[in-house]
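Contributing new records

If you add data, match the layout below exactly. Sequence lines come first and carry their own label; structure lines follow with theirs. Keep one chain per record. Anything else will be rejected by the validation script.
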Amino acid sequence: MIRVNLDIIMARRHMSSGELSQRLGITPANLSILKNNKGKAIRFSTLDALCKILDCKVEDILEYIEEEEHGTDGK
């Protein structure tokens, strides 16, 4: 599973969703989808812009989390 940590980076940079969406050139609704892990894809150009605007690396924004698989017997 890929987790989007955009809200954490934004808080560290003291940046509001409104300011970031405006600087990115995307709608607040689309930014919300991205922030809330509801998006299915992100353009490299958007990811590049996020890194520039927030002065961070891709791995600060996107995090891979291995999902545990559980059988019906709990194993």
